[in-house]
Amino acid sequence: MDSPLGELRIVASTRGITGIYMENHSHPPDPEALGQLLDSAADDPLISQCAGELAEYFAGTRTTFGVPLDARGTDFQKRVWEQLARIEFGTSRTYGQLALALGDEKLTRAVGTANGRNPISIIVPCHRVIGADGSLTGYAGGLDAKLFLLRLEGIEPPPEATLF
Prior knowledge:
This protein is α+β, with helices and mostly antiparallel strands and 164 residues long. The protein has helices spanning 45-59, 75-85, 95-101, 108-116, 143-152; strands at residues 8-12, 17-22, 93-94, 129-130. Strand 1 and strand 2 form a beta hairpin.
């Protein structure tokens, strides 16, 4: 689907959405996992629902998603992604806060790695995770996309430090 971020590729199983990938996604799906390429989102009910909900999100009329999800990952990754899904629209969390929510502040780096492998961008809001100092950190769709999504939700990260 077309979006303000460029083309998004939506991938679904029979049970739910398995991925939403941006054009220059740093962790693209294995081509064999993509299945059949459809002519239109309307050709699959889950993809159609997802595309509609994303369009509403980008239009500023949707803050939560109802499309079923079917994320594929390790047990730890799924635990992290469940924590991501609890971050409400318009709010952000740090990697450390997510690690504490999982029961161990020492998991911060592992949380960051799992966050970066989140296959369901936007709906599972990994863009809402920022550095402890409020800085933007890596995002599989690129930092410009992360900044766009944060601003769309009314989250304004602090300005970058400069020398002048």
